[in-house]
Specification:
The structure is a single chain. A hairpin with a 5-residue loop joins strand 11 (194-195) and strand 12 (201-202). The longest helix is centred in the first third of the chain and has 20 residues, at 28-47. This protein has one domain (2-213): Rossmann fold. The protein has six helices and twelve strands. The radius of gyration is 18 Å and the shape is globular. It has helices spanning 12-20, 28-47, 83-92, 141-154, 169-177, 208-213; strands at 2-4, 52-59, 62-69, 73-79, 97-107, 113-121, 129-133, 136-137, 159-168, 184-192, 194-195, 201-202. 31% of the residues lie in helices and 35% in strands. The strands form three sheets. Strands 1, 4, 5, 6, 7, 8, 9 and 10 form an eight-stranded mixed β-sheet that branches. A two-stranded antiparallel ribbon has the order 2-3. A two-stranded antiparallel sheet has the order 11-12.
């Protein structure tokens, strides 16, 4: 149900290190590229868990049997921070359909917040494999609200892969509590132990959207 990729020694850790490093992460182009590369690595790992069928391919010298993915894939992301991460998945699953959702925090007078899901654009999910990508899994609330909004709009997928770069232990527990382990798998590149009072992951990286695209008003 939960796959944490940096538990093994891997080139992934180089990209995670640069995204965490405050002396490096200020280079927004490198930050976006590292996010994209983590998406590519995670797409490769997820590809091992998909369904395949044998296809016969004609070469210049004969016929080759090739195992190809038979799942119909939809990659969905939460705007805006998820865009470079999403692109990494699309680089590998280049024939996948795509979905996009806007979800943002609305602050309350007491300092707490609610998550508002406004825009949902996706192809049908019924009978397909959904890969829902969001670089930061903090409380898990936004991810589950977006997941529910996608299903209400486009139908029930056969299986859903949730993909995050940096997660919190609290966010992981929340996703596990609110999903069916037979139909959902959670992938994290790394999981951190804490959340701040404003639900930022510690040690984390800060605000992924700001690092990728500039500080928002």
């Amino acid at each position: 149900m939960v796959k944490i990729l940096n538990k093994e020694n891997t080139i992934l850790n180089k990209f995670l290190s640069q995204m965490r490093n405050k002396h490096v992460q200020g280079d927004s182009m490198r930050f976006r590229r590292n996010m994209e590369r983590v998406g590519e690595i995670m797409a490769y790992e997820i590809s091992k868990k998909l369904n395949y069928t044998t296809r016969m391919v004609e070469t210049p010298l004969g016929i080759a049997a090739v195992e190809e993915i038979s799942d119909k894939i939809v990659i969905a992301t939460i705007l805006r921070a998820g865009l470079p991460f999403h692109q990494g998945f699309l680089n590998y699953f280049d024939d996948a359909d795509n979905g996009f959702v806007s979800a943002y925090r609305k602050s309350r007078p007491d300092g707490s917040f609610i998550v508002d899901v406004e825009y949902v654009s996706t192809s049908s999910l019924a009978g397909k494999t959904l890969i829902l990508v969001d670089p930061m899994l903090a409380t898990g609330t936004s991810l589950m609200l977006v997941y529910d909004a996608l299903i209400r709009r486009a139908g029930e997928p056969d299986h859903t892969h949730f993909a995050a770069v940096f997660g919190s232990e609290q966010g992981v527990e929340y996703v596990l509590k609110h999903t069916n382990p037979d139909k959902c798998t959670l992938w994290c590149a790394s999981v951190d132990p804490e959340l701040t009072s404003k639900s930022y992951i510690v040690p984390g990286i800060g605000d992924a959207g700001d690092l990728a695209y500039g500080v928002k008003l």
